[in-house]
Specification:
It contains 11 helices and 15 strands. With 357 residues, it is of the alpha/beta class. Bound molecules: S-adenosylmethionine. The site of S-adenosylmethionine has 22 residues, from helix 8.
Protein backbone atom coordinates (compact mmCIF):
# COMPACT_ATOMS: atom_id res chain seq x y z
CA UNK A 1 0.00 0.00 0.00
CA UNK A 2 1.69 3.18 -1.15
CA UNK A 3 -1.35 5.44 -1.50
CA UNK A 4 -2.87 7.67 1.17
CA UNK A 5 -6.30 9.12 0.52
CA UNK A 6 -6.89 12.26 2.57
CA UNK A 7 -10.24 14.03 2.85
CA UNK A 8 -10.10 17.80 3.36
CA UNK A 9 -12.28 20.88 3.11
CA UNK A 10 -12.86 21.79 -0.56
CA UNK A 11 -10.41 24.56 -1.45
CA UNK A 12 -7.77 23.43 1.06
CA UNK A 13 -6.15 20.70 -1.03
CA UNK A 14 -2.81 22.55 -1.25
CA UNK A 15 -2.62 23.00 2.52
CA UNK A 16 -3.52 19.35 3.08
CA UNK A 17 -0.86 18.26 0.55
CA UNK A 18 1.82 20.53 2.01
CA UNK A 19 1.10 19.22 5.47
CA UNK A 20 1.21 15.51 4.62
CA UNK A 21 4.39 16.01 2.60
CA UNK A 22 6.06 17.74 5.57
CA UNK A 23 4.90 15.20 8.13
CA UNK A 24 5.82 12.24 5.95
CA UNK A 25 9.29 13.68 5.25
CA UNK A 26 9.83 14.31 8.97
CA UNK A 27 8.96 10.64 9.59
CA UNK A 28 11.46 9.56 6.90
CA UNK A 29 8.94 8.78 4.14
CA UNK A 30 9.21 10.39 0.76
CA UNK A 31 6.59 10.69 -1.90
CA UNK A 32 4.49 13.10 -3.90
CA UNK A 33 0.93 14.35 -3.72
CA UNK A 34 -1.73 14.66 -6.39
CA UNK A 35 -4.27 17.44 -5.96
CA UNK A 36 -7.06 19.05 -7.95
CA UNK A 37 -8.52 22.40 -6.84
CA UNK A 38 -11.79 22.00 -4.93
CA UNK A 39 -11.71 18.19 -5.18
CA UNK A 40 -11.95 17.92 -1.35
CA UNK A 41 -9.30 15.22 -1.24
CA UNK A 42 -5.57 14.71 -1.74
CA UNK A 43 -3.69 11.60 -2.78
CA UNK A 44 -0.20 11.08 -1.38
CA UNK A 45 1.88 8.40 -3.00
CA UNK A 46 4.92 7.08 -1.15
CA UNK A 47 8.07 5.91 -2.91
CA UNK A 48 8.22 2.87 -0.64
CA UNK A 49 5.75 0.15 -1.64
CA UNK A 50 4.31 -0.16 1.89
CA UNK A 51 4.92 3.45 2.93
CA UNK A 52 1.28 4.45 3.21
CA UNK A 53 0.42 1.56 5.53
CA UNK A 54 3.37 2.41 7.75
CA UNK A 55 2.63 6.12 7.70
CA UNK A 56 -1.00 5.74 8.71
CA UNK A 57 0.13 3.82 11.76
CA UNK A 58 3.04 6.12 12.65
CA UNK A 59 1.77 9.66 12.12
CA UNK A 60 -0.57 10.75 14.87
CA UNK A 61 -3.82 11.69 13.14
CA UNK A 62 -4.48 14.31 15.84
CA UNK A 63 -1.42 16.21 14.66
CA UNK A 64 -2.93 16.83 11.23
CA UNK A 65 -4.61 20.18 10.76
CA UNK A 66 -6.07 20.04 7.27
CA UNK A 67 -6.86 16.32 6.96
CA UNK A 68 -10.40 15.43 8.00
CA UNK A 69 -10.08 11.68 7.47
CA UNK A 70 -7.63 9.32 5.80
CA UNK A 71 -6.97 5.77 4.71
CA UNK A 72 -4.14 3.78 3.14
CA UNK A 73 -4.64 1.62 0.08
CA UNK A 74 -3.04 0.52 -3.16
CA UNK A 75 -4.39 3.46 -5.19
CA UNK A 76 -7.24 4.16 -7.57
CA UNK A 77 -9.07 1.19 -9.01
CA UNK A 78 -9.98 2.29 -12.52
CA UNK A 79 -12.08 0.96 -15.40
CA UNK A 80 -14.61 -0.68 -13.09
CA UNK A 81 -17.16 -2.46 -15.29
CA UNK A 82 -20.58 -0.95 -14.51
CA UNK A 83 -22.10 -4.42 -14.67
CA UNK A 84 -19.68 -5.87 -12.09
CA UNK A 85 -17.82 -3.46 -9.85
CA UNK A 86 -17.70 -6.07 -7.11
CA UNK A 87 -15.14 -8.51 -8.54
CA UNK A 88 -12.25 -6.04 -9.08
CA UNK A 89 -12.82 -4.31 -5.73
CA UNK A 90 -12.91 -7.62 -3.87
CA UNK A 91 -9.65 -8.58 -5.56
CA UNK A 92 -8.00 -5.41 -4.21
CA UNK A 93 -9.29 -6.00 -0.66
CA UNK A 94 -7.82 -9.51 -0.68
CA UNK A 95 -4.49 -8.30 0.76
CA UNK A 96 -6.07 -6.04 3.44
CA UNK A 97 -6.25 -6.89 7.14
CA UNK A 98 -9.80 -7.84 8.22
CA UNK A 99 -11.79 -4.77 9.24
CA UNK A 100 -14.47 -4.18 11.87
CA UNK A 101 -16.59 -1.89 9.69
CA UNK A 102 -17.10 -0.77 6.12
CA UNK A 103 -17.34 3.01 5.73
CA UNK A 104 -18.66 4.29 2.42
CA UNK A 105 -17.60 7.87 1.77
CA UNK A 106 -17.69 10.53 -0.95
CA UNK A 107 -15.53 13.60 -1.49
CA UNK A 108 -17.25 16.54 0.25
CA UNK A 109 -18.32 18.24 -3.01
CA UNK A 110 -21.60 18.42 -4.93
CA UNK A 111 -20.25 16.00 -7.55
CA UNK A 112 -19.07 13.74 -4.77
CA UNK A 113 -22.45 13.73 -3.07
CA UNK A 114 -24.09 12.62 -6.31
CA UNK A 115 -22.05 9.43 -6.06
CA UNK A 116 -23.44 8.82 -2.56
CA UNK A 117 -26.40 6.84 -3.92
CA UNK A 118 -24.08 4.53 -5.86
CA UNK A 119 -21.96 3.96 -2.75
CA UNK A 120 -24.99 3.16 -0.60
CA UNK A 121 -26.40 0.73 -3.14
CA UNK A 122 -23.06 -0.96 -3.64
CA UNK A 123 -22.45 -1.26 0.11
CA UNK A 124 -25.10 -4.00 0.47
CA UNK A 125 -23.57 -6.67 -1.84
CA UNK A 126 -20.03 -5.52 -0.96
CA UNK A 127 -20.67 -6.04 2.76
CA UNK A 128 -22.09 -9.52 2.18
CA UNK A 129 -19.15 -10.53 -0.02
CA UNK A 130 -16.64 -9.14 2.50
CA UNK A 131 -18.29 -11.07 5.33
CA UNK A 132 -18.20 -14.28 3.33
CA UNK A 133 -14.48 -13.76 2.74
CA UNK A 134 -13.86 -12.94 6.44
CA UNK A 135 -12.65 -9.47 5.47
CA UNK A 136 -15.39 -7.92 7.60
CA UNK A 137 -15.43 -9.28 11.13
CA UNK A 138 -16.98 -8.30 14.45
CA UNK A 139 -14.03 -6.52 15.98
CA UNK A 140 -10.84 -5.20 14.48
CA UNK A 141 -8.35 -2.40 14.99
CA UNK A 142 -8.90 -1.55 11.31
CA UNK A 143 -11.79 -0.08 9.39
CA UNK A 144 -12.33 -0.34 5.66
CA UNK A 145 -13.06 2.74 3.54
CA UNK A 146 -14.60 2.93 0.08
CA UNK A 147 -14.85 6.12 -1.99
CA UNK A 148 -16.31 6.23 -5.49
CA UNK A 149 -14.69 8.96 -7.58
CA UNK A 150 -16.93 8.24 -10.58
CA UNK A 151 -19.10 5.38 -11.76
CA UNK A 152 -16.01 3.54 -12.94
CA UNK A 153 -13.33 4.63 -10.48
CA UNK A 154 -12.93 4.06 -6.74
CA UNK A 155 -10.42 3.98 -3.89
CA UNK A 156 -10.48 1.37 -1.16
CA UNK A 157 -8.21 1.28 1.84
CA UNK A 158 -7.91 0.87 5.58
CA UNK A 159 -7.36 3.13 8.56
CA UNK A 160 -6.58 2.28 12.19
CA UNK A 161 -9.70 2.98 14.29
CA UNK A 162 -7.49 4.48 17.00
CA UNK A 163 -5.64 6.75 14.57
CA UNK A 164 -8.33 8.30 12.40
CA UNK A 165 -11.37 10.50 12.78
CA UNK A 166 -14.22 9.14 14.86
CA UNK A 167 -16.61 10.63 12.25
CA UNK A 168 -17.43 9.34 8.76
CA UNK A 169 -15.35 11.51 6.36
CA UNK A 170 -14.28 13.45 9.46
CA UNK A 171 -17.64 15.25 9.47
CA UNK A 172 -19.45 15.28 12.82
CA UNK A 173 -23.22 15.13 12.76
CA UNK A 174 -24.05 17.78 15.34
CA UNK A 175 -27.58 19.06 15.75
CA UNK A 176 -28.03 22.84 15.92
CA UNK A 177 -29.57 23.47 19.36
CA UNK A 178 -32.77 25.48 18.86
CA UNK A 179 -32.08 27.84 21.78
CA UNK A 180 -28.46 28.65 20.82
CA UNK A 181 -28.09 32.25 19.63
CA UNK A 182 -25.85 31.52 16.61
CA UNK A 183 -24.68 28.69 14.36
CA UNK A 184 -21.15 29.42 15.60
CA UNK A 185 -22.15 27.42 18.67
CA UNK A 186 -21.39 24.24 16.68
CA UNK A 187 -17.75 25.27 16.27
CA UNK A 188 -17.08 25.17 19.99
CA UNK A 189 -19.02 21.93 20.41
CA UNK A 190 -17.05 20.32 17.59
CA UNK A 191 -13.79 21.66 19.05
CA UNK A 192 -14.52 20.00 22.37
CA UNK A 193 -15.38 16.71 20.64
CA UNK A 194 -12.11 16.90 18.77
CA UNK A 195 -9.76 18.14 21.49
CA UNK A 196 -11.24 16.75 24.72
CA UNK A 197 -11.69 12.97 25.01
CA UNK A 198 -15.29 12.05 25.90
CA UNK A 199 -14.26 10.37 29.15
CA UNK A 200 -12.64 13.63 30.34
CA UNK A 201 -15.57 15.96 29.71
CA UNK A 202 -16.92 15.66 33.27
CA UNK A 203 -13.57 16.81 34.73
CA UNK A 204 -12.47 19.32 32.12
CA UNK A 205 -15.84 20.83 31.20
CA UNK A 206 -17.25 20.74 34.68
CA UNK A 207 -20.15 22.33 36.48
CA UNK A 208 -19.36 25.68 38.16
CA UNK A 209 -16.12 26.24 36.26
CA UNK A 210 -15.29 29.81 35.31
CA UNK A 211 -14.82 30.87 31.71
CA UNK A 212 -14.10 33.97 29.67
CA UNK A 213 -15.47 34.29 26.13
CA UNK A 214 -13.67 36.96 24.08
CA UNK A 215 -15.74 38.19 21.12
CA UNK A 216 -18.78 36.51 22.61
CA UNK A 217 -21.77 38.18 20.92
CA UNK A 218 -24.43 37.06 20.26
CA UNK A 219 -23.45 34.13 22.47
CA UNK A 220 -23.21 30.82 20.61
CA UNK A 221 -19.98 29.84 22.37
CA UNK A 222 -21.15 31.25 25.71
CA UNK A 223 -24.29 29.11 25.28
CA UNK A 224 -22.11 25.96 25.15
CA UNK A 225 -20.19 27.00 28.29
CA UNK A 226 -23.45 27.74 30.12
CA UNK A 227 -24.87 24.40 29.00
CA UNK A 228 -21.95 22.73 30.80
CA UNK A 229 -22.94 24.66 33.94
CA UNK A 230 -20.11 27.21 33.79
CA UNK A 231 -20.13 30.88 34.77
CA UNK A 232 -19.03 33.09 31.92
CA UNK A 233 -17.65 36.59 31.51
CA UNK A 234 -18.70 37.45 27.95
CA UNK A 235 -16.53 40.19 26.45
CA UNK A 236 -17.93 42.03 23.44
CA UNK A 237 -19.17 45.49 22.58
CA UNK A 238 -22.00 43.86 20.65
CA UNK A 239 -25.31 42.71 22.17
CA UNK A 240 -25.73 39.30 23.80
CA UNK A 241 -28.78 37.10 23.37
CA UNK A 242 -31.43 38.00 25.96
CA UNK A 243 -32.53 34.46 26.85
CA UNK A 244 -28.89 33.50 27.44
CA UNK A 245 -28.41 36.49 29.77
CA UNK A 246 -31.56 35.39 31.66
CA UNK A 247 -29.72 32.16 32.63
CA UNK A 248 -28.01 34.25 35.33
CA UNK A 249 -24.69 32.58 34.49
CA UNK A 250 -23.39 35.24 32.13
CA UNK A 251 -21.76 38.55 32.94
CA UNK A 252 -21.65 40.70 29.79
CA UNK A 253 -18.69 43.09 29.80
CA UNK A 254 -18.45 45.78 27.13
CA UNK A 255 -14.72 45.87 26.47
CA UNK A 256 -11.97 45.27 23.94
CA UNK A 257 -11.01 41.59 24.16
CA UNK A 258 -7.37 42.39 23.42
CA UNK A 259 -6.98 44.61 26.49
CA UNK A 260 -9.41 42.97 28.92
CA UNK A 261 -7.78 41.31 31.95
CA UNK A 262 -9.63 38.94 34.29
CA UNK A 263 -9.85 39.83 37.99
CA UNK A 264 -9.27 36.18 38.88
CA UNK A 265 -7.92 33.26 36.82
CA UNK A 266 -10.47 31.14 34.98
CA UNK A 267 -10.62 27.51 33.92
CA UNK A 268 -11.44 28.21 30.27
CA UNK A 269 -10.66 30.97 27.81
CA UNK A 270 -12.44 30.86 24.47
CA UNK A 271 -11.88 33.42 21.73
CA UNK A 272 -13.77 33.82 18.46
CA UNK A 273 -12.53 37.31 17.55
CA UNK A 274 -11.80 37.67 13.84
CA UNK A 275 -8.41 39.40 13.67
CA UNK A 276 -4.87 38.83 12.45
CA UNK A 277 -3.73 35.31 13.47
CA UNK A 278 -0.49 36.64 14.98
CA UNK A 279 -2.41 39.13 17.13
CA UNK A 280 -4.76 36.44 18.43
CA UNK A 281 -1.87 34.03 19.10
CA UNK A 282 -0.01 36.77 21.00
CA UNK A 283 -3.04 37.39 23.18
CA UNK A 284 -3.54 33.68 23.92
CA UNK A 285 0.13 33.43 24.87
CA UNK A 286 -0.23 36.37 27.29
CA UNK A 287 -3.24 34.78 29.02
CA UNK A 288 -1.47 31.46 29.48
CA UNK A 289 1.94 32.77 30.53
CA UNK A 290 0.30 35.10 33.04
CA UNK A 291 -1.56 32.14 34.53
CA UNK A 292 -4.99 33.58 33.75
CA UNK A 293 -6.42 30.34 32.29
CA UNK A 294 -5.79 26.61 32.14
CA UNK A 295 -7.30 25.64 28.81
CA UNK A 296 -8.10 27.59 25.65
CA UNK A 297 -10.08 27.17 22.43
CA UNK A 298 -9.51 29.89 19.86
CA UNK A 299 -10.04 30.62 16.22
CA UNK A 300 -7.41 31.74 13.76
CA UNK A 301 -8.77 33.42 10.65
CA UNK A 302 -6.49 32.37 7.79
CA UNK A 303 -4.99 34.83 5.31
CA UNK A 304 -5.70 34.48 1.56
CA UNK A 305 -2.23 33.10 0.87
CA UNK A 306 0.34 31.06 2.79
CA UNK A 307 -2.42 29.61 4.95
CA UNK A 308 -0.51 26.51 6.04
CA UNK A 309 2.64 28.56 6.72
CA UNK A 310 0.67 31.04 8.82
CA UNK A 311 -0.79 28.33 11.08
CA UNK A 312 2.63 26.74 11.53
CA UNK A 313 4.10 30.15 12.39
CA UNK A 314 1.48 30.72 15.10
CA UNK A 315 1.98 27.19 16.41
CA UNK A 316 5.76 27.63 16.60
CA UNK A 317 5.41 31.00 18.28
CA UNK A 318 3.07 29.60 20.94
CA UNK A 319 5.34 26.61 21.55
CA UNK A 320 8.41 28.85 21.86
CA UNK A 321 6.68 31.22 24.26
CA UNK A 322 5.40 28.38 26.45
CA UNK A 323 8.86 26.88 26.55
CA UNK A 324 10.58 30.11 27.51
CA UNK A 325 7.98 30.63 30.27
CA UNK A 326 8.72 27.09 31.52
CA UNK A 327 5.17 25.93 30.83
CA UNK A 328 4.48 22.43 29.56
CA UNK A 329 1.40 22.57 27.38
CA UNK A 330 -0.28 20.72 24.54
CA UNK A 331 -0.98 22.89 21.50
CA UNK A 332 -3.03 21.59 18.59
CA UNK A 333 -4.82 23.01 15.59
CA UNK A 334 -7.56 21.59 13.42
CA UNK A 335 -9.59 22.84 10.54
CA UNK A 336 -12.90 21.65 11.90
CA UNK A 337 -15.88 20.85 9.70
CA UNK A 338 -17.61 23.99 10.99
CA UNK A 339 -14.56 26.15 10.24
CA UNK A 340 -14.50 27.95 6.93
CA UNK A 341 -11.46 30.13 6.13
CA UNK A 342 -10.09 29.44 9.60
CA UNK A 343 -8.63 26.84 11.91
CA UNK A 344 -9.37 26.19 15.56
CA UNK A 345 -6.59 26.08 18.12
CA UNK A 346 -6.51 24.32 21.46
CA UNK A 347 -4.01 24.87 24.22
CA UNK A 348 -3.96 23.04 27.53
CA UNK A 349 -1.52 23.75 30.32
CA UNK A 350 -0.11 20.55 31.80
CA UNK A 351 2.51 21.90 34.19
CA UNK A 352 3.62 23.86 35.99
CA UNK A 353 0.49 25.86 36.09
CA UNK A 354 0.75 29.37 37.37
CA UNK A 355 -2.98 29.14 37.51
CA UNK A 356 -4.35 31.19 40.38
CA UNK A 357 -0.99 32.69 41.47
C1 LIG B 1 -17.58 35.64 14.92
S1 LIG B 1 -18.30 36.71 16.07
C2 LIG B 1 -18.42 35.73 17.50
C3 LIG B 1 -19.57 34.77 17.49
C4 LIG B 1 -19.74 34.08 18.82
N1 LIG B 1 -18.59 33.21 19.14
C5 LIG B 1 -20.99 33.24 18.86
O1 LIG B 1 -20.87 32.01 18.97
O2 LIG B 1 -22.08 33.78 18.79
C6 LIG B 1 -17.00 37.77 16.48
C7 LIG B 1 -17.33 38.75 17.57
O3 LIG B 1 -16.11 39.37 17.97
C8 LIG B 1 -16.41 40.68 18.37
N2 LIG B 1 -15.15 41.44 18.38
C9 LIG B 1 -14.39 41.85 17.33
N3 LIG B 1 -13.29 42.48 17.78
C10 LIG B 1 -13.37 42.44 19.13
C11 LIG B 1 -12.52 42.93 20.18
N4 LIG B 1 -11.37 43.56 19.90
N5 LIG B 1 -12.91 42.70 21.44
C12 LIG B 1 -14.05 42.07 21.73
N6 LIG B 1 -14.88 41.60 20.79
C13 LIG B 1 -14.54 41.78 19.51
C14 LIG B 1 -17.45 41.16 17.38
O4 LIG B 1 -18.21 42.20 17.96
C15 LIG B 1 -18.28 39.87 17.16
O5 LIG B 1 -19.41 39.86 17.99
Amino acid sequence: MNHLFLHCRPGFEKECAAEITDLANDAGFFGYSKTRDNAAFVEFITHEPDGALQLIQQLPFRQMIFTRQWFAGPGRVTDLPVTDRLTPLLAVVESFPPAGALIVETPDTNDGKELGALGKKFAVPFTKALQTRKKLINRSAWQLHLVFLSGTEACVGVSPVANSSQWVMGIPRLRMPSSAPSRATLKLEEAWHHFVPAQEWDDRLALSMKAVDLGAAPGGWTWQLVKRGMFVDAIDNGPMDKALMDSGQVNHILADGFVYEPKKPVDWLVCDIVDKPARVAGMISRWVTKGWCREVVFNLKLPMKQRYAEVKKCEERLMAEMESAGIRATINFKQLYHDREEVTGHLRVLSPSRFGQ
